[in-house]
Specification:
Layout (H helix, E strand, L loop, with lengths): L2 E4 L2 E4 L6 H7 L23 E5 L6 E2 L9 E4 L3 H14 L17 H9 L22 E3 L9 H9 L6 E3 L6 E3 L13 H5 L5 E3 L12 E6 L8 E7 L2 E7 L12 H5 L13 E4 L2 E4 L2 H13 L6 E5 L5 H13 L4 E3 L29 E5 L3 H4 L1 H12 L4 E5 L10 E4 L2 H8 L4 H8 L3 E6 H4 L4 H15 L2 E2 L2 E2 L1 E4 L5 H7 L10 H10 L4 E5 L13 E6 L4 H5 L2 E4 L9 E3 L5 E3 L13 H11 L9 H11 L40 H4 L2 H11 L12
Parallel strand pairs: 1-5, 15-16, 15-24, 17-18, 17-20, 18-19, 20-23, 24-25, 25-26
Antiparallel strand pairs: 1-2, 3-4, 3-5, 6-9, 7-8, 10-11, 11-12, 13-14, 13-26, 21-22, 27-28
Helix pairs in contact: 8-18, 8-19, 11-14
Length: 689
């Protein structure tokens, strides 16, 4: 490994490392605009100039120059500083003085560097350049006169998002970044362009002119719009969430975030439940908490535990699920389900429902089979990781299911179970690829596990694992990609039918037939509420969606930004949201509602604080205990062999932008649906770029 000296500090780094990367390893920051550690090197902004010896007596771009043995680098020599000041002067020749009205003001790289290397006057007297704004869809606003042609956005679109919709046209002073044909950027990760832009050329359209960064209270939290569990930062002013940004977590989302997770937050302000309701004479009328609890208690007294059931929704936190199960168990019920889509797993083995190799394990896999899943819509950030692995050329990909553009090339083996069976019995050519791979992987989606024959499909997938050697020492390549943030946590807590209990289909059919007369919906809106028959329905949730419309009593709960809740992501990783704002109106945190209700029902739960509730979680499963190592599961065959329907696998996500009560209430997501799902990708007359 070559040794070099940077600002008097000797450092040894691997061959091929650039000067800029070597400097960062010893804590020396070199200014840059075009360089980004996750994108290819462009070397076109020249802001990272340093003095290098031995070499020609001129500054060198540190982002593009590899280190060499014996090299001496000065990052702040008079030559380097003068060169950067010259670069900054050129960058500011055409840049408008928009700081007072620019959304990037206060968090703009150009603004920060201008303070260090800018000049207090301009020597440029020629006419300034103006560039027409471009239309890039409902999420990205443009002010292209500010663009400094760093090409970060171009490289992100091509390399990470896999949507080569952006590029540069013309040369020299006339160069422009454009979508060529004016249309929306065709990616579910387009919001990341705003984070990458070092100036105010690309800004967030929904957030435009709402706030300055110093006005916002920043809260580190977790995203719950899919099962990846992306790490986020929630920015709020007062009691209103104004934006969501990604946080760095190399093992989960790196530093990217899907567009729904970022921009569906305007749905937090619409169609909210902010007071209890009780149905009287066929109409829901506002009520006090005491009246709502009294209505529930009156019904519970007239029924038995065998006629009671509960369904947990896709965004329910573990705290509320464990207390609801404890309460209904005390009342005598055994009918619970956290699987609104009816997914099938081996409930005795957590390995049958987890992403066992871990999301970061994708970076090591060398053969990947995707079955019954469209990860581009089900988990865009995870799909970007799959694309990243594809671009290395070290992994082969195959898909069984819908033939869709996943942003990377795959072998399409077939649409249904017959193709999976061919892999299991070795007659498919891809079976040989899996067997030859060092770290093979299968990703089983909800399109394969929510069918009538899912138990048999699961057995077939288990057969693939055994026949192709997907599980070996130090590697488990069997992975389930969930679509619901609450799912893994609910399964781990045992929020599933107990002895003689009913699953989701049993609950709905029982309510239809009058065999169940009390159903508790904990944020469950994706079920067929028409099948609830004449059952007494309690709905606890944050939005007036399908479940609330059918309810006899509504208990207003908190949204994910309004509570501290525990979630397990698709790989079983425990993460917690943090309260950024307070619940609206009379709404309360979900676990506190269930605790208060238990007292009225005469089965007072012993947990009075959040710490005690989390102790209860840890008692149910060590996965929820931060101080206890989770025991490694033992691999074994699962599923039940049986008749298999030849019908094609279909992803359950038909519209990425509307999958839950929050995103369905979002005006921004309605615009995205119109543009991306309905195909109206061209600019509407009169809209701002």
């Amino acid at each position: 490994m070559p040794k070099l000296t940077i600002d008097g500090i000797e450092v040894e780094v691997p061959a091929g490392t650039t000067i800029l990367q070597a400097a960062e390893q010893i804590g020396i920051e070199i200014p840059r605009f075009c360089y980004h550690e996750r994108l290819s090197i462009a070397g076109n902004c020249r802001m990272c100039l340093v003095e290098v010896q031995p070499g020609p007596p001129k500054p060198a771009a540190s982002c593009a120059m590899p280190v060499a043995e014996g090299m001496t680098v000065k990052t702040n020599s008079p030559m380097a500083v003068k060169a950067r000041k010259g670069v900054m002067e050129f960058l500011l020749i055409n840049h408008p003085l928009d700081c007072p009205i620019c959304d990037q003001g206060g968090e703009c790289d150009l603004q920060d560097q201008a303070v260090a290397f800018g000049y207090d006057r301009s020597r440029y007297t020629e006419q300034k350049r103006a560039v027409q704004d471009k239309y890039m869809g409902p999420l990205v606003a443009t002010e292209m006169t500010r663009c400094i042609q760093c090409t970060r956005c171009v490289r992100f679109a091509q390399e990470v998002a896999g949507a080569p919709d952006l590029g540069g046209v013309n040369r020299g002073e006339h160069m422009e970044i454009t979508t060529y044909v004016e249309k929306a950027i065709g990616s579910e990760l387009s919001g990341n362009l705003v984070d990458l832009c070092p100036v105010g050329a690309l800004t967030s359209k929904p957030y435009a002119f709402n706030a300055r960064p110093w006005e916002l209270k920043k809260t580190e939290s977790i995203d719950v719009f899919d099962a990846v569990g992306s790490n986020i930062r929630v920015d709020a002013r007062g009691n209103e969430v104004l934006r969501v940004l990604p946080r760095l977590n190399e093992d989960v989302n790196e530093e990217w975030l899907g567009d729904k997770s970022r921009h569906a937050i305007d749905g937090l302000r619409r169609q909210r439940l902010d007071t209890p309701y009780v149905r009287k004479d066929g109409k829901l009328v506002p009520a006090s908490w005491q009246e709502a609890f009294a209505a529930i208690a009156a019904k519970v007294k007239t029924t038995s535990g065998a006629k009671m059931a509960a369904v947990a929704g896709d965004m329910a936190d573990a705290e509320s699920m464990v207390l609801l199960k404890d309460l209904l168990t005390a009342l005598g019920s055994r009918s619970f389900d956290c699987r609104q889509d009816g997914a099938v797993f081996d409930l005795s083995n957590r390995l049958s429902w987890q992403f066992n190799s871990g999301i970061a394990g994708i970076d090591e896999a060398d053969a990947i089979l995707i079955v019954g899943s469209n990860p581009r819509w089900e988990a865009p950030v995870l799909n970007a990781r799959l694309r990243k692995r594809y671009l290395t050329g070290k992994a082969k990909f195959a898909v069984i299911g819908e033939a869709t553009d996943l942003t990377y090339k795959v072998d399409h083996l077939g649409t249904g179970p017959d193709a999976l069976k061919a892999v299991a019995d070795g007659s498919s050519p891809f079976a040989a690829v899996l067997k030859a791979a060092q770290k093979p992987m299968i990703i089983l989606g909800m399109g394969a596990l929510t069918r009538k024959d899912s138990a048999a499909i699961l057995a077939l997938a288990s057969q693939v694992v055994d026949s192709c050697g997907l599980v070996k020492d130090g590697w488990n390549g069997f992975n389930v990609l969930h679509t619901a943030a609450a799912r893994v946590g609910g399964l781990e807590l045992g929020f599933v039918p107990g002895a003689n209990g009913r699953d989701l289909d049993g609950i709905l059919s029982g309510a239809e037939k009058g065999e169940l007369d009390f159903v508790y919906l904990l944020g469950a809106d994706e079920i067929d509420t028409k099948r609830l028959g004449k059952a007494f329905v309690v709905y606890q949730g944050s939005h007036g969606d399908a479940g609330a419309m059918r309810a006899d009593v509504i208990l207003p709960g908190a949204a994910y930004t309004e509570k501290s809740g525990t979630y397990l992501n698709t790989e079983g990783r425990m993460q917690r949201t943090a309260r950024a704002v307070f619940p609206l109106g009379e709404a309360k945190e979900d676990w506190t509602i269930i605790r208060a209700l238990s007292e009225v029902l005469g089965h007072t739960l012993p947990q009075n604080t959040l710490v005690q509730v989390r102790d209860r979680l840890a008692a149910v499963s060590p996965v929820f205990d931060e101080d206890t190592a989770v025991p490694a599961g033992k691999w074994g065959a699962f599923g039940v062999a049986g008749a298999i329907d030849a019908a094609a696998f279909e992803s359950p996500v038909k519209n990425y932008y509307m999958t839950d009560p929050i995103s369905r209430a979002s005006r921004t997501m309605a615009e995205c649906t119109e543009v991306y799902v309905n195909g109206n990708q061209k600019r509407k007359t009169g809209t701002h770029g």
